[in-house]
Design goal:
The complex is a heterodimer of chains A (about 270) and B (about 425).
Chain A lengths: L3 H21 L4 H29 L7 H23 L5 H17 L13 H37 L5 H4 L3 H34 L7 H22 L5 H25 L7
Helix pairs in contact in A: 1-2, 1-4, 2-3, 3-4, 3-5, 5-7, 5-9, 7-8, 8-9
Chain B lengths: L3 E6 L5 H6 L4 H13 L5 E6 L3 E7 L4 H15 L4 H4 L4 E4 H13 L10 H16 L4 H20 L9 H13 L6 E5 L3 H12 L4 E5 L3 H11 L2 E3 L4 H7 L2 E4 L10 H10 L5 E5 L16 E5 H17 L1 H47 L7 H28 L3 H15 L7
Parallel strand pairs in B: 5-6, 5-8, 6-7, 8-9, 9-10
Antiparallel strand pairs in B: 1-3, 1-4, 2-3
Helix pairs in contact in B: 2-6, 5-7, 5-14, 6-7, 7-14, 8-9, 8-13, 14-15, 14-16
Classes of the chains: A mainly alpha (about 270), B alpha/beta (about 425).
Chain lengths: ~270, ~425
């Protein structure tokens, strides 16, 4: 069901991306403000679309692949907006919004034919567990984009091939700081989400621990991102090496939400 | 209403002439007073920088006469023989004067294309002239437009965005790595002209801590005192190196000043935090292989010169965009000017037609003795109504004309046809 809200969301995100791109190519500062307003508008429409879908399926929006991906896209956009306002840096928007748009379009393609049956009653703790986990993945995705930008800019600076783009990128130090902020948000979200997951499974089955490869991979993700935060500040890893580690970490996250969920986990499907 | 501009700049006059024709604030005030009291200009604004001295004004009558008088005035005011200024001074009127000012404010007329300082200088000149009460409605509008335009050009184009000197390119690159420099420490080796430029740029960027080292301690101290930097002896700069994020070396030395091993040692001491090395020395002061170390960024003078050259080309490619904005603002100003002009032309035309009507009626009615005083008065009223009716339609047509060029042409045609005694430049 592609609603008018979904169409408005895509339009706002696409227009926002256009304005972010224009800003990157030297437009007036007002262009950046318009891009931010459009992004905020897109996030609002997206939220309403998720709400509408929840009412339609009588369930949380992550009950199927479509909902999970759409929520992921929404949280990614929301995390970026928060980070943009916090760090007052708009040039990342041009690189991030394509991911949001691709996720949203993929979610639309993965749309089920009809409304699913009533979901199993799992309670609000479970809902929070899933939401926080997806928020964590969104924050990690954002840090991936930022780390990628860092490496690209660092390579250009080291090779002295600045071109036009380097002058429009944020400073390396800022990219690193934004990436760290994003990872911090993700780490807190995933740890709290994981704890809530244990509470939830305890309530549903009466057992805190059930063997699931997802647990191990999630613990590995937590460990790797904690290592990124630690190493990036205190040792020889700061700079490009930390960014490479961040990119590697995100590949584990992707592995976790794809191979592990689809083929190995019994309790996790779309997140 | 006309605008006149008389001035000289780096293209028309040598630095010796420019020096002699420059104005201090006090001189600008005196010049404005004298120009008004002598009836040369009604409104005056003096723009004086190291590259230009220009007087903008609104003449009371004939603009060309005012421009000539202004040239003579400049000679006498600065005690320069008029022959010495011959060929250096340029005169611009109305649209050309507006275009000139707008190009100046945009940085298009600067020695260094797109330089940022000129906008501040225009703003300051306007503020000073306003304080004296030397400006009026025309120059206020003109200079407010110029300031608005200058900001727009800098915001919407890349004309002033990229560094154009080796020193500023180095400092801008440091900002690409460290962001704002308030938290950074820099060490400058050498106290020559280039070092001074770097120190000045770093200070402008509010660098947190700044060290200067030179073989001659006195020169380092002198440079340090002038720019608020800490001078260190040549033997001690190694200690400052450990805490520095940016190292600029511009020393005449036959051998390298900073070896790869030194940089390696420093990087270990600073926990591999990024280090930006700028080598402006020829022969090079920093061992090139230091660039291969992790988190070390090394740029030499050729690298920076290449960046400056790229930036110059990038700035030049922005000229058409900047000129477009200039033209847009000229249009805005002329539109305002034309609307004001239209009112005054219509009023002058109405007065002229009334005079003609009175003379005509007086001559014709003198021969019509049979008419009563009442009839004469009625004819006068009818003629007045006819006159207003005749004027109403063209006036509305002119006011409603949206095409600026046609509007100006119509106003000028009206003036040429009916008010030939009103001269224009």
């Amino acid at each position: 069901m592609t609603t008018i809200l979904t169409v408005l969301t895509v339009l706002c995100y696409a227009a926002s991306w256009g304005f972010y791109l224009r800003l990157l190519y030297g437009a007036r500062p007002v262009t950046g403000r318009v891009a931010t307003v459009l992004l905020a508008l897109g996030i609002t429409f997206h939220y309403l679309a998720l709400l509408e879908r929840s009412r339609w399926v009588h369930s949380v929006p992550y009950q199927d692949l479509h909902g999970a991906m759409s929520l992921f896209a929404w949280l990614l956009a929301l995390t970026y907006l928060g980070l943009e306002l916090f760090h007052r840096q708009r040039s990342v928007g041009a690189f991030l919004l394509p991911f949001v748009l691709i996720l949203l379009l993929a979610a639309t393609l993965a749309h089920p034919a009809g409304p699913p049956g009533p979901p199993p009653a799992r309670g609000s703790v479970f809902a929070l567990h899933v939401t926080l986990s997806i928020l964590a993945y969104a924050a990690f995705a954002l840090s991936f984009v930022l780390s990628f930008m860092f490496l690209a800019e660092e390579r250009l600076l080291r090779s002295h091939k600045l071109g036009t783009i380097v002058w429009r990128f944020p400073a390396l130090e800022l990219l690193e700081r934004m990436s760290r902020s994003s990872v911090l948000v993700g780490l807190v979200a995933i740890v709290v989400g994981m704890c809530l997951g244990f509470v939830s499974i305890d309530r549903l089955t009466g057992r805190v621990w059930r063997y699931d490869p997802k647990y191990l991979v999630t613990l590995l993700v937590v460990f790797l991102y904690a290592a990124y935060l630690y190493l990036g500040r205190t040792t020889n890893w700061r700079g490009a090496r930390a960014s490479k580690l961040c990119i590697f970490n995100f590949s584990i996250v992707l592995l976790s939400v794809s191979v592990v969920n689809l083929f190995l986990s019994r309790w996790h499907r779309f997140f | 209403m006309e605008i006149v501009l008389v001035g000289l700049n780096h293209r028309t006059a040598s630095v010796e002439v420019r020096e002699r024709v420059s104005f201090t604030v006090e001189q600008a005030r005196r010049a404005a007073e004298q120009l008004r009291s002598r009836g040369i200009l009604e409104e005056t604004l003096v723009l004086s920088t190291c590259n230009r001295s220009e007087v903008y004004g609104v003449p009371p009558e004939n603009a060309q006469e005012s421009a000539t008088a202004l040239s003579v005035f400049l000679s006498s005011f600065h005690a320069i023989h008029p022959d010495e200024l011959h060929g250096s001074l340029y005169h611009h009127y109305d649209r050309d004067a507006v275009r000139h000012l707008f190009r100046v404010a945009a940085g298009l007329d600067s020695m260094m294309l797109g330089e940022a300082e000129i906008l501040g200088q225009v703003r300051e000149a306007y503020r000073v002239a306003q304080e004296f009460g030397a400006t009026g409605p025309v120059l206020n509008r003109l200079f407010q437009g110029a300031l608005e335009l200058g900001k727009r050009v800098r915001a919407e184009t890349e004309l002033g965005a990229r560094p154009m000197s080796v020193a500023s390119a180095g400092v801008k690159l440091a900002e690409r790595i460290f962001g704002k420099l308030q938290q950074c420490t820099a060490l400058v080796l050498g106290a020559g002209t280039i070092s001074e430029q770097v120190v000045s740029q770093l200070r402008d960027r509010k660098i947190g801590q700044l060290y200067v080292a030179n073989r001659s301690r006195e020169r380092a101290t002198d440079l340090g005192e002038r720019f608020g930097a800490k001078a260190v002896t040549w033997e001690e700069w190694g200690r400052a190196l450990t805490t520095s994020d940016i190292v600029v070396s511009c020393v005449s030395a036959a051998q390298v000043v900073l070896r790869r091993e030194d940089v390696e040692r420093v990087m270990a001491a600073r926990g591999n935090r990024a280090l930006f090395l700028i080598d402006l020395g020829v022969p090079r002061n920093i061992e090139p292989s230091a660039a291969n170390l992790y988190n070390v960024y090394l740029y030499n003078v050729d690298d920076l010169t290449e960046i400056v050259e790229q930036n110059r080309r990038a700035r030049e490619s922005e000229i058409p965009r900047a000129e477009e904005i200039v033209n847009e603002h000229i249009g805005k100003f002329l539109s305002w000017q034309a609307s004001v002009e239209l009112g005054s032309v219509l009023n002058a035309l109405r007065s002229r037609l009334r005079e003609e009507r009175s003379a005509f009626l007086q001559a014709r009615l003198a021969q019509m003795n049979h008419m009563s005083a009442e009839d004469r008065q009625r004819i006068e009223v009818l003629m007045e109504e006819l006159l207003e009716k005749l004027l109403l339609e063209p006036a509305e047509h002119l006011r409603g004309e949206r095409h600026l060029r046609r509007k100006i042409q119509n106003v000028e045609a009206l003036r040429d046809l009916f008010l030939p005694q009103r001269e224009k430049p």
